[in-house]
Amino acid sequence: MQFTSLTLAIIIGVAFVLLSIFFYYVPFFLWISARVSGVRISLIQLFLMRIRQVPASIIVRAMIEAHKAGLQDVTRDDLEAHFLAGGNVEKVVHALVSAVKANIDLGFKMATAIDLAGRDVFQAVQMSVNPKVIDTPPVTAVAKDGIQLIAKARVTVRANIRQLVGGAGEDTVLARVGEGIVSSIGSSVSHKEVLENPDSISKLVLRKGLDSGTAFEILSIDIADIDIGKNIGAALQIDQAQADKNIAQAKAEERRAMAIALEQEMIAKAQEARARVIEAEAELPRAMAEAFINGNLGIMDYYRMKNMEADTNMRETIARPSIASPATPSKNK
Q: Could you tell me if 88 and 69 are in contact, meaning their C-beta atoms sit under 8 angstroms apart?
């Protein structure tokens, strides 16, 4: 009796292990769920998915969703290939179902390509149905009258399914919109024109086709706020005037230095000439002595020269302004 109970327990244990292994490698209940939903798939295919380490539950659920949505071009092999390539099967199927409901032309190959490119294909389909609003950072620009303006814009975009693979992202759109705002404000004659007609900025930016080559389609650009900044033109004029003043001062200092140098040069030349005169006057007595010895100068000639020299000194003395001496008070008698 004991042997029989032990044998029965072993048989039950072995049967449980075999059933566990069977249901692990052959998802029987998942197969039943697929058959009930109208998806044709065999137990052998489910078993081979386990061998290939493909989650059968994800593939079967995706096939059921695609079948219920009426997607005829989605097959098991395509879903397995996309999963093995590193894609997200669930998001691709969700995106295809949403595209069908929204009447958007999106094929399975395009959806898988978008998903493998690293973009959220389901979010892209949702953005095609519900456009997204992007707020630009403050954009600073200067009008022609020199007044600085700080503008903020709101860009309404819609995903462009055809450009999601290889198309530029939100950063490129924001950069192009900012460039368009700067160009529009910079071409305005006065900042008052921009403040009076802010819609002129959005119209000019929209005409440039900024969404070319991007993954989005720009629907509208609305100027949310415009603030007045600094008077850049006046500041530049002040800086230019200060620079001109510094240049003029530098040139004046240069001319002054040249004049001082020229004056010093003239003084040096005059001193040199004076030294030569003194040297020549020092040689005069010797020349007169030689003239006396050689008989070229007589005594009368010498006295005549002295008289002329005394006469010259007297005239110079008379020509000088006299310094009046203080009057001496008279003594009382």
A: no
Q: Which residues contact 73 (CB under 8 A, 6 or more apart)?
A: 107, 108
**Residue 113 and residue 103 in contact, taking contact as beta carbons nearer than 8 Å:** no
| Residue 325 pLDDT | 47
pLDDT value for 6: 63
Spatial neighbors of 265 by CB under 8 A, at least 6 apart, are none
Spatial distance between the Cα atoms of 251 and 264, rounded to a whole number of angstroms: 20
The first and second tokens of residue 161, run together, are: 């399914």
Q: Residue 37 corresponds to which tokens in the numbers above?
A: 């939903």
CA proximity to 173, closest of 132, 225, 212? 212
CB neighbours of 330 closer than 8 A, spacing ≥ 6? none
- Whether pLDDT at 331 is above 50: no
Q: Identify the three-state secondary structure at position 35.
A: helix
Q: Cα Rg for the chain, rounded, in angstroms?
A: 54
Q: Letter for the amino acid at 144?
A: K
Cα separation of 181 and 153, whole Å?
9
CA-closest candidate to residue 214, choices 178, 244, 169: 169
Instruction: Give the pair of three-digit tokens for residue 14.
Output: 């072995």
Percent of the chain past pLDDT 70, that is, above it, reads 89
Q: Give the contacts of 107 (CB within 8 A, at least 6 positions apart).
A: 73
Q: Decide: helix, strand or coil at residue 211.
A: coil
pLDDT attached to residue 332: 46
- CB count within 10 Å of CB 90 equals 15
The strand pairing partners of 154, in sequence order, are 135, 222
Overall pTM surpassing 0.90 (yes/no): no
Instruction: Name 90's Cβ contacts closer than 8 Å, sequence gap at least 6.
Output: 58, 61, 62
CA atoms of 221 and 223, how far apart (whole Å): 7
Q: What's the rounded Cα separation, in Å, for the pair 263 and 256?
A: 10
